[in-house]
Structure formats: structure tokens, C-alpha cells
Write a structure and sequence with these properties.
Number of helices: 2
Mean pLDDT: 76
Helix content: under 10%
Order of helices and strands: HEEEEHEEEEEEEEEE
Structural class: mainly beta
Low-confidence stretches: 1-42
Largest sheet: 7 strands, antiparallel
Number of strands: 14
Radius of gyration: 16 Å
Distance between the termini: 37 Å
């Protein structure tokens, strides 16, 4: 492994040890992502959030991404004749018909009690830790747990499965 590249086994330890660096990531759509400073939340809490592609299709787009800013939006690359997404996506997935991923699919964002996933009105929905949210263009949110979480963009058969690790960090009082 070359300096600056992250493997799946050590990315979270590396993130927590060196939060100020920019890491070079493998993946077709992401070349480098600034690892996070604190992602602010309520009650003096902060979170480090890292997204990993679990399946080959997801890993091709996002082997390991430290989410420096939230919201972090995920959606499909438009095909010929389709309009661009309503909001700019931070991670764009290549999908083919029949689509698993909508152009405006899901977002990882701050919520009142921490970090949450919001289905952005996708057609087939998003599965978060086994719970289906959204679908048929309805917007819905679900909180993420501190620790490991799984997000599936689309149906249970979707090739776009991600692990999201949320680490709680206490802010210094200085």
C-alpha cells in the first residue's frame, strides 16, 4: 500500500490518529477527501463519520471516505436525456436500468441527536440497518447508531451497500 492510501482494515484507526491529513483514496469517483475535523452536533458532542463501500459496485465509487462536511449527498449519475440532480451529490454512483439508485437518493446529515440518514425522495427507498425508509418519492429519516451501520441504496438486491462508521468524540473545553 502506498503512502496516503487506506485499506479497509486500518482506515478508522488511521482517521482517528491523523485527523488533519488528506488521504488518497482508491475509487473511480473519489480521488482525495479531507478527513474530518469535528462534525458538530448538540450538547457539545462531535462525530467522525466514515463511509465504506461493501459491495464491488459501492467500493468502486467509495472504498473509504471520511465525511468532512455534512450533509453528504449520494445519488445516481444521470443518463442521457435526464436532468441533473436537484442538489449536487458528493458521491455519484453509476447504475444501469432498471435503476437501484435515484439521482437524489440519500444523505448522511446532522440531526437533533447525532447523525442520521435521510432518503431524499428516491423511488425505491433506502435500507438503513435493516429498516426500509423512503421509497415512492417519500422523504424519511432514521438515526445512525454510534459504531457500525449499514446503508443499502435501493432494494435488498441492490449492488450498492455501504458501511457507515460513526465515532463519538468529546470536544475539548479550550
Amino acid at each position: 500500500m502506498r503512502r496516503g492510501e487506506m485499506g479497509l482494515g486500518d482506515e478508522m484507526n488511521l482517521l482517528l490518529q491523523r485527523p488533519e491529513e488528506t488521504f488518497r483514496l482508491r475509487g473511480a469517483n473519489v480521488l482525495a477527501v479531507q478527513s474530518p475535523r469535528a462534525v458538530e452536533s448538540t450538547e457539545g458532542r462531535a462525530f467522525d463519520v466514515v463511509l465504506f463501500g461493501l459491495t464491488p459496485a459501492a467500493a468502486a465509487a467509495a472504498r473509504a471516505i471520511s465525511l468532512a462536511r455534512l450533509p453528504f449527498r449520494v445519488g445516481r449519475l444521470p443518463v442521457a436525456g435526464e436532468a441533473q440532480p436537484m442538489e449536487v451529490n458528493d458521491l455519484t454512483l453509476s447504475d444501469t436500468k432498471p435503476f437501484n439508485v435515484s439521482r437524489n437518493h440519500f444523505a448522511i446529515e446532522r440531526g437533533p441527536d447525532g447523525v442520521q440518514v435521510r432518503d431524499r425522495g428516491s423511488y425505491v427507498g433506502t435500507i438503513v440497518n435493516g429498516v426500509q425508509i423512503g421509497g415512492h418519492r417519500h422523504v424519511a429519516t432514521v438515526p445512525l447508531a454510534v459504531g457500525e451501520n449499514e446503508i443499502v441504496a435501493g432494494t435488498p438486491r441492490s449492488p450498492f451497500r455501504f458501511r457507515v462508521v460513526v465515532a463519538l468524540r468529546q470536544l475539548s473545553s479550550t
